[in-house]
Amino acid sequence: MAELVFFSPIKAAQLTRLPVFTCPVPAGFPLPGVGPADEILDLHQYLFGQPASTCLARVVGDTTPGVGIHPDDFIVVNRALTPSDGHIVVAVLNGAHSVHRLRQEPGRRWLEAVGEHYAPLELHAACDLRLWGVVTHVIHPLFRKRSGVA
C-alpha cells in the first residue's frame, strides 16, 4: 500500500508566479516559434485554490501507477472536496493513510488500488475508515536522478 509523508502548508512568501504561453503546445507536430508569455500563472492559486484545506504529501509505495502517481511523487490533497465514485482519495483505514481510487455503488463501497498487485478493499460498516481528502494534482519529474551519477 502507498504510505504518505505530509508537508506543512506553503507560506505566502513562497508563492510562485510563472509565465504561461496561451498558444497550444501540440504533443505531435511542432508549431512555429512562440513569442513572449501571454499571461502569468499563479502556481499557488492553480494547485492550492483552497489553501486552508489543501496540502502536499509525498507518496511512498506503488498502489497508484495506473493513474500516473508513482513513488516519491507529490500529490496535492484537498480536504474540502466531497469524495465521489472514481476520485483518487487519501483514505485513513484503521489509522493508516493510503492512496486509492474510491468506488461506490448503492449499498456498496470499496477502495481500489490502481496497481496490478493489490486486491480491492471492500469497506464494511465495521471498518475504521475516514476519507481524508481528494487528490487534485500530481507533481513528478519526468527524469529521476540516479544515485551515484553526477
Automatic annotation (TrEMBL):
<dbReference type="Pfam" id="PF00717">
    <property type="entry name" value="Peptidase_S24"/>
</dbReference>
<dbReference type="InterPro" id="IPR039418">
    <property type="entry name" value="LexA-like"/>
</dbReference>
<dbReference type="InterPro" id="IPR036286">
    <property type="entry name" value="LexA/Signal_pep-like_sf"/>
</dbReference>
<feature type="domain" description="Peptidase S24/S26A/S26B/S26C">
    <location>
        <begin position="24"/>
        <end position="135"/>
    </location>
</feature>
<protein>
    <submittedName>
        <fullName>SOS response UmuD protein. Serine peptidase. MEROPS family S24</fullName>
    </submittedName>
</protein>
<dbReference type="InterPro" id="IPR015927">
    <property type="entry name" value="Peptidase_S24_S26A/B/C"/>
</dbReference>
<dbReference type="InterPro" id="IPR050077">
    <property type="entry name" value="LexA_repressor"/>
</dbReference>
